[in-house]
């Protein structure tokens, strides 16, 4: 490139700057950069880690490879607000276009990274992919050997998270790869002893160390709700619930929910008519009793503003509420209501 001349006739002695295709490559090729007043900056492992994680977050595979060539480790974790995410966690959670994300994930899988590694909430990359509802990523991880039965700190499986967020395609990818359909996040001692379902008893159990709890400062995904079908009943995820029942064989009579309740108990309490009808049409029992002897119909009545009800007033409210009408159409007589 021709150098411009100065007014005094002398040519410039300082060449014009040239730029390489990759800014990251340019910076990493000069580890002793001058900044400010002759201050030297050394590319420490901390700096390399930031560069690596930024490259993964943008799904720039060439930059990821360059960082690794310069000494970055794929085992390094995000120690900041990322809650201890590994490289594969960050690749799954990045907001890049899907084709670029899958390129990075495939490369990381080929590099033999640990697929069932956990972050500070004990979530695996598969938990993250299920929560985001990305079936392509879920399938990639499962085919590479990720465990669909893994639990996080709150005993939730990836299927719980897909169901809670209404991600049908992700839920189908999980169930078609042997994800446990009837796994409950309620711990065995709670199912055996209904008293542990009471908040005060839960707090006491946590203090005594008999409960698993998340690391201090972490956020919980959802409240304890039982199986994935219980989660659908609570969150009104009709399409996922239909898939779990009709295609994956979920147990509509499961009493693994809070207070040993069935999915119908949960749906009635939340006032989700369509879920109630789906469960009833697939064999749910309207007179099933939970740990406190309550039926789904009784749970449904709880959502109504009872002020003190006469028989006529109660009947009027039942017919005014679509959810209870759905239940009443089955066997409401068990509660003495005609």
Automatic annotation (TrEMBL):
SMART domains (UniProt xref): ANK
SUPFAM superfamilies: Ankyrin repeat
Keyword Glycoprotein among record annotations: no
Region (Disordered): 1-27, 185-211
Transport keyword on record: no
Alphabetically ordered keywords of this record: ANK repeat, Repeat
Comp. bias intervals (Basic and acidic residues): 1-14, 193-211
InterPro entries per UniProt: Ankyrin_rpt, Ankyrin_rpt-contain_sf
ANK repeat windows: 121-153, 154-186, 259-291
Matches recorded under PANTHER family: ANKYRIN REPEAT AND PROTEIN KINASE DOMAIN-CONTAINING PROTEIN, ANKYRIN REPEAT-CONTAINING PROTEIN-RELATED
Annotated protein name in UniProt: Uncharacterized protein
């Amino acid at each position: 490139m021709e150098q411009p001349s100065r007014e005094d006739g002398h040519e410039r002695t300082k060449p014009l700057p040239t730029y390489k295709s990759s800014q990251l490559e340019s910076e990493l090729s000069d580890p002793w950069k001058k900044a400010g007043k002759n201050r030297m900056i050394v590319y420490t492992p901390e700096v390399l880690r930031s560069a690596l994680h930024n490259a993964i977050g943008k799904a720039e595979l060439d930059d990821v490879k360059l960082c690794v060539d310069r000494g970055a480790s794929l085992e390094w974790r995000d120690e900041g607000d990322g809650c201890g995410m590994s490289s594969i966690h960050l690749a799954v959670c990045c907001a890049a276009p899907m084709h670029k994300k899958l390129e990075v994930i495939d490369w990381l899988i080929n590099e033999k990274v640990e697929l069932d590694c956990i972050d500070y909430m004990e979530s695996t990359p598969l938990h993250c992919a299920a929560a985001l509802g990305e079936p392509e990523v879920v399938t990639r991880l499962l085919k590479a050997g990720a465990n669909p039965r893994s639990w996080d700190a709150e005993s939730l499986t990836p299927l719980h998270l897909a169901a809670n967020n209404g991600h049908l395609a992700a839920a189908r990818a999980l169930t078609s790869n042997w994800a446990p359909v009837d796994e409950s996040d309620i711990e065995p001692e709670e199912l055996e002893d209904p008293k542990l379902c009471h908040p005060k008893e839960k707090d006491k159990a946590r203090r005594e160390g008999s409960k698993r709890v998340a690391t201090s400062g972490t956020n919980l995904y959802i409240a304890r709700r039982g199986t994935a079908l219980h989660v659908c009943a609570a969150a009104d995820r009709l399409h996922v619930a239909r898939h779990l029942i009709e295609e994956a064989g979920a147990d509509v009579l499961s009493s693994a929910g809070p207070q040993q309740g069935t999915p119908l108990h949960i749906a009635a309490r939340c006032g989700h008519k369509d879920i109630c009808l789906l469960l009833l049409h697939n064999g749910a029992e309207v007179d099933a009793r939970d740990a406190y002897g309550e039926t789904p119909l009784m749970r449904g009545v709880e959502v109504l503003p009872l002020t003190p009800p006469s028989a006529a007033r109660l009947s009027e409210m039942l017919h005014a509420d679509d959810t209870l009408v759905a239940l009443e159409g089955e066997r409401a007589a068990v509660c003495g209501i005609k």
